[in-house]
Amino acid sequence: MVETIFDLPVEKQIFYAVLGFSWTVYLWEAYLSYRQRRIYRSTTHVPQELGKIMDSATFEKSRLYQLDKSNFSFWSGLYSETEGTLILLLGGIPLLWGVAGSLTNRLGFGSEYEITQSLVFLTLATLFSAVTGLPWSLYNTFVIEEKHGFNQQTFGFFLRDALKKFFVTQCILLPVTSLLLYIIKIGGDYFFIYAWLFTLAVSLVLVTIYADYIAPLFDKFTLLPEGELKMDIEAMAKSISFPLTKVYVVEGSKRSSHSNAYFYGFFKNKRIVLFDTLLEDYSPFNKTGEPQPEQPESDETSSEAKAKPKNKKQGCNNPEILAVLGHELGHWKLGHTVKNMIISQMNSFLCFSLFAVLIGRKELFVAFGFNDSQPTLIGLMIIFQFIFSPYNERKRMVVPAALKIVRLKPTRKQPNVARES
C-alpha cells in the first residue's frame, strides 16, 4: 500500500497526504474527547480538592453541561470532517470557483478580473459555511444552552443576529481580501513583507475600532454607574498603574447567561467591559429584550410561585468581580498581551514568507483540481489551510501548553493586586 501511494504522481501524494493528516488529527482529538467524556460520566461526586468551594448541586449541573457539550462537539466535529472530505473528493473548491467565474462573466467581467471572481467565490463560500453550520448552531443554542438555563434568545433574535453577523463580516472581509490580493499581485519579490504589514495594520485597526463601532451593533454598552464597585475597580487599576479611562457594562443577558469581563484599548486609553450577567442581582431580560414587568399577585400567581422555585442568585459580589478582573489585569501587568501579539506577528511573517516560496508550485494547485489556473486566493487557501496544517497542529499543541503556564501567573499575582486595591 505504501509503495502504491509513493508511485502516484506528486499531486496525488499531496492530496492524500492532506486528507490522511486531517483524519489522523480528527481521530486523535476524538479519542481524547472520548476519554474526557468517560471522566464526565464516572465522576459523579465533588472531588475532595473542591469540596470546600463547590456544592454538589453546582458540580452536578457543571458535569452534565460539559457532558452534553462534549457529545455535541463529537457529532458536529464528525460532520465537519466528513463535509470537508467530501468537498475535497468531489472537487467542491474548483466547482465553486467555476460558479464564481460564471457569475462574474454575467456581470460583464472577464477572466482577467481575478480579484472580482475571488470576492464572489469568497461570498459563496462563506454563505455555504453559514447555511451548513446553521442547524448545528440552532441545536447548540436552543437545545443544549436552553436545557441548562443559559440561552436567553428567541428564534427571531437568533436569526436577526446571525444575519447581522454575516453582513458585517462581509463588509470587513471583502475589502480586506481584495486589498490583500492586490498587494500580493503588485508587490513583486517582496510582496510577502507588504502583505504581512498590511495584515498587521488591519489587525491593529480592528482591535481599535471593534469595541467602539462593531460590538455596539450587536450589544448595548452603558457606563458603569457611580458606586462602590466602580470605586473599587478604579482603585485596583490605579494600584498597578493601569491607565483606565472608562468602565462599561455590556448587555449580554439578552443573548446568554454566561458571564465575562475584558479590557481593550491602546496606550493610555484602556477601557474595561463587564457583562451584566457578571454583576450580582442583575435583571435578566425577557425574550423581547425588555425588563420583565412586575405582575400583581393573585391566588393563581401565588400558587404558580409556590410551584416554581426561584432561581439561585445570579452574578458575583464585588470581591468576586474584582478577583475575575484582577486575573485579566494581571495579564496586562505581566505584559502577556504585548508578548502574545509579538508571537502572533512573528508567526504571521513566517507563514507569509513560506507562502512566497510555495505559491509558484503548480503541483499544489493541480492537487486540488486547478489544472489550468493558479488563482492567488486559492493559493492562500491551499497553503495556509492544507499545506501548513502539520505546522498549525504543532502550534496548537505548543501554544495551549505555554498559555496554561502564562494564565497561572496572573492568578498568582491576583492576591497582590487585590491587596493593593
TrEMBL record:
<feature type="transmembrane region" description="Helical">
    <location>
        <begin position="341"/>
        <end position="359"/>
    </location>
</feature>
<keyword id="KW-0378">Hydrolase</keyword>
<feature type="region of interest" description="Disordered">
    <location>
        <begin position="286"/>
        <end position="315"/>
    </location>
</feature>
<feature type="binding site">
    <location>
        <position position="331"/>
    </location>
    <ligand>
        <name>Zn(2+)</name>
    </ligand>
</feature>
<keyword id="KW-0256">Endoplasmic reticulum</keyword>
<keyword id="KW-1133">Transmembrane helix</keyword>
<dbReference type="Pfam" id="PF01435">
    <property type="entry name" value="Peptidase_M48"/>
</dbReference>
<comment type="similarity">
    <text>Belongs to the peptidase M48A family.</text>
</comment>
<keyword id="KW-0645">Protease</keyword>
<feature type="transmembrane region" description="Helical">
    <location>
        <begin position="14"/>
        <end position="32"/>
    </location>
</feature>
<keyword id="KW-0482">Metalloprotease</keyword>
<feature type="transmembrane region" description="Helical">
    <location>
        <begin position="166"/>
        <end position="184"/>
    </location>
</feature>
<feature type="transmembrane region" description="Helical">
    <location>
        <begin position="86"/>
        <end position="103"/>
    </location>
</feature>
<keyword id="KW-0812">Transmembrane</keyword>
<dbReference type="InterPro" id="IPR001915">
    <property type="entry name" value="Peptidase_M48"/>
</dbReference>
<feature type="domain" description="CAAX prenyl protease 1 N-terminal">
    <location>
        <begin position="36"/>
        <end position="220"/>
    </location>
</feature>
<dbReference type="GO" id="GO:0004222">
    <property type="term" value="F:metalloendopeptidase activity"/>
</dbReference>
<dbReference type="GO" id="GO:0071586">
    <property type="term" value="P:CAAX-box protein processing"/>
</dbReference>
<feature type="domain" description="Peptidase M48">
    <location>
        <begin position="225"/>
        <end position="389"/>
    </location>
</feature>
<feature type="transmembrane region" description="Helical">
    <location>
        <begin position="190"/>
        <end position="211"/>
    </location>
</feature>
<feature type="transmembrane region" description="Helical">
    <location>
        <begin position="365"/>
        <end position="388"/>
    </location>
</feature>
<feature type="binding site">
    <location>
        <position position="327"/>
    </location>
    <ligand>
        <name>Zn(2+)</name>
    </ligand>
</feature>
<comment type="function">
    <text>Proteolytically removes the C-terminal three residues of farnesylated proteins.</text>
</comment>
<keyword id="KW-0479">Metal-binding</keyword>
<dbReference type="Pfam" id="PF16491">
    <property type="entry name" value="Peptidase_M48_N"/>
</dbReference>
<dbReference type="GO" id="GO:0046872">
    <property type="term" value="F:metal ion binding"/>
</dbReference>
<dbReference type="InterPro" id="IPR027057">
    <property type="entry name" value="CAXX_Prtase_1"/>
</dbReference>
<dbReference type="GO" id="GO:0005789">
    <property type="term" value="C:endoplasmic reticulum membrane"/>
</dbReference>
<keyword id="KW-0862">Zinc</keyword>
<protein>
    <recommendedName>
        <fullName>CAAX prenyl protease</fullName>
        <ecNumber>3.4.24.84</ecNumber>
    </recommendedName>
</protein>
<feature type="transmembrane region" description="Helical">
    <location>
        <begin position="115"/>
        <end position="139"/>
    </location>
</feature>
<keyword id="KW-0472">Membrane</keyword>
<dbReference type="InterPro" id="IPR032456">
    <property type="entry name" value="Peptidase_M48_N"/>
</dbReference>
